[in-house]
Write a structure and sequence with these properties.
single chain; alpha/beta; Aminopeptidase
Length: 364
């Protein structure tokens, strides 16, 4: 494992804060209402470097999906150590949001302590009309088994296998599962029934951004989908939109797709964290992108999610299978192979630099 990466949330946070202090940056901490597996306190930290009254900002987020945070954290820390504020323009600021979901980060889970997928939690709950997902309802039983046995932990249910028989069926399966659901609290990809602590912290951060900001870029680090070590950049904007074309231009040389596009390994989702930016700060022009680094094949990733969900929702987190399930989550979302980590680190920090260059080149 490369030294830039960590095996625990505490170690990742320590490295990040040490790098931030060397940059003499502004640091804001937010304490999570739950503790880690050893009773330790958990935090979402926000570091700012650059102007205090910027007209353009770059926001780099790690840990939206908890256990996926090791990748984003390593890239944030390496960027701080190698670049600091040297190349930031006079009217530019960078905000590094570390461990947006520190609970999942610490417990090696993708979700919050409420079993909520944070990237499906940004919907208008006060309207009391949550998005419906009939496709998920038909799959609930096979997606969320009530029992798990050691010999079948690595084997998908035969009914799941049938969904991988053709590209068309795979696309339909991903659309039904990945969209998110709001009816089954003990199911995977649950969007919640109210705004989580992480949701509120992010919205408060966005609301407090300087009024001088005219353009904001967001990079949200993720792992799990796609070819191992490969990067696909997801935008929620339609391919014919100005926003999508700008995203593709900024990140030229990489695969940039629109979620739900047939050419994308992604899928349309509801309630993404980007809503915290585009819906609450409409006076700012936003360029938002998910950075998705591939790890394992889709079946292995799904099996890890199912096993983790079973462990915490149907076995109260106690089972002889717990260590094995945690390693499945590591393998699917934070591989420890030097080669994978080296590729991710180089690519991730390069994308941060590309975003910063594009921002500095904007005429506002």
């Amino acid at each position: 494992m490369r030294p830039e990466f960590s095996r625990t949330y505490d170690d990742a946070r320590r490295k990040f804060l040490e790098a931030a202090m060397l940059c003499r940056s502004e640091i804001l901490t937010n304490r999570y209402p739950q503790t880690g597996p050893n009773g330790e306190d958990l935090y979402t930290d926000v570091v700012r470097i650059g102007s205090s009254r910027p007209d353009r900002i770059l926001i780099v987020i790690s840990g939206t999906h908890g256990v996926e945070g090791f990748c984003g954290s390593a890239c944030q820390t390496e960027y701080l150590k190698s670049e600091c504020a040297a190349r930031i323009g006079e009217q530019t600021a960078i905000y590094l949001v570390h461990g947006l979901n520190p609970y999942g980060f610490s417990w090696l889970r993708r979700v919050t302590h409420e079993n909520v997928d944070l990237n499906r939690n940004f919907v208008e709950f006060e309207n009391r009309s949550l998005p419906q997902n009939s496709g998920y309802a038909t799959l609930f039983g096979v997606l969320n088994p009530l029992t798990r046995e050691p010999e079948t932990l690595d084997e998908p249910d035969p009914n799941i296998k049938a969904w991988f028989a053709s590209p068309e069926k795979i696309a339909a399966f991903k659309a039904a599962v990945g969209k998110g659901q709001y009816d089954y609290p003990h199911g995977i990809i649950f969007g919640g029934t109210s705004a989580t602590w992480c949701n509120r912290v992010l919205r408060d951060f966005v609301a407090a951004l300087p009024r001088t900001v005219k353009h904001g870029a967001v990079l949200d680090f993720h792992t799990g989908l796609g070819e191992r070590g490969g990067l696909e950049i997801f935008c929620e904007d339609k391919p014919d939109s100005t926003e999508f074309r700008r995203c593709a231009e900024w990140y030229a040389g990489h695969t940039v797709t629109s979620l739900g596009d047939a050419a994308s390994v992604g899928y349309e989702i509801t309630g993404s964290i980007f809503q915290a930016f585009t819906r609450s700060q409409r006076s700012i022009q936003w360029t938002c992108a998910d950075l998705e680094f591939g790890t394992e094949n889709l079946v292995k990733v799904l099996l890890a999610l199912q096993a983790d969900n079973w462990l915490h929702c149907f076995s109260q987190g106690v089972s002889p299978l717990a260590p094995r399930i945690q390693e499945m989550m590591r393998a699917s979302f934070s591989p420890e192979a030097n080669e994978w980590q080296a590729i991710v680190l180089q690519t991730g920090t390069s994308i941060i630099r590309q975003a910063l260059t594009a921002l500095n080149d904007l005429r506002l």
